[in-house]
Amino acid sequence: MSAQKDPARYPFAGTRYLLSHPKLLSGVICYVIIGIIFALAALIILLAAALKPHAEAFGGEVLGWLLGTIAVFVEAFIIAMIFMKLMVSKAQEQLFVSVMKLEGCWNDGWEEPTMLSNLICCCNTTLLLQMVTLPINLLPVVGTMLYVALNAPLASWDLMSLYYDSIGMNEVEQKRKVVGKGCEKINPNTFFGDAHFRFGMSATFVELVPLLGPTLFTLGNACAAALWSCDIEKEKKRGEEERGLTGAV
Q1: Distance (Å, rounded) from C-alpha 73 to C-alpha 52?
Q2: Mind giving me the DSSP string for 198-225?
Q3: Residue 59 phi/psi, 5° resolution?
Q4: FRET pair for 114, CA 20 to 30 Å: which of 141, 164, 187, 208?
Q5: pLDDT tens digits along 184-237
């Protein structure tokens, strides 16, 4: 991996890249729109069908209706997050491959990534961790930084699995490369200095931006993973060329 570029910069570069290539955005925006429509539909249906039963289950009266409303919103939020994850994952797959091809770094012998299948393994863990740690984010500054740090390793794995799946790296190798390395020790050299951790922190942080985070920046993170993967591939080729020249001498 490139030692000259800070991985934390890729999420910002990815969003700039996406905005500078409108065709990329127009090709995947339908997935985001479908996700938003489904989220609103889930909320409306639950309010219409489940609010009264929930309120009665909590004993009725004012407090019961209040608790029932909160429960319905929580349920709608969870359902919406899961469905949005499905839609966004599909959009990210498409963006990743498109950017790699535009940059001339896609190998025709690779298999196109399938993040939807990863929801069964690493991505479902990512989503669960995000839901469990989300209340921490309500604490100003400290809570947000803690939330970002806790989610960084799995967020990096979630995104870079697009590349690792394409080159045929199995799940165990991916976990050892990304999560295992990032969680060995909490010190500046092996944790906060880890490339995948820094990439994951930056990617998680930009996704917290209201409105733009779950939409634009989430899609931009797929471009970020592609740009980092391109740099990895370019560095590999340079290394092979240097070894070839050395061997020739």
Answers
A1: 13
A2: HHHHHHHHHTTSTTTIIIIIHHHHHHHH
A3: 100, 5
A4: 208
A5: 433 334 444 588 899 999 999 999 998 899 889 999 999 999 999 999 999 988
For 217, which DSSP code? I
Radius of gyration of the chain (CA): 21
Question: Can you tell me the distance from the alpha carbon of 228 to that of 234, in angstroms, rounded to the nearest whole number?
Answer: 10
Candidates 238, 237, 234, 222; CA nearest to 99 is 222
Q: Which amino acid is at 113?
A: P
Distance, in Å, from the CA atom of 27 to the CA atom of 91, rounded to the nearest integer, reads: 8
SS3 for 60?
coil
* Residue 211 backbone dihedrals phi, psi, to 5 degrees: 65, -60
Task: Establish how many alpha carbons lie within 13 A of residue 16's alpha carbon, considering only the half-sphere containing its beta carbon.
Answer: 6
| Rounded-to-integer distance, Cα 64 and Cα 56, Å | 7
The reported pTM is: 0.80
- Residue at 161: amino acid letter: S
The one-letter code for the residue type at 119 is L
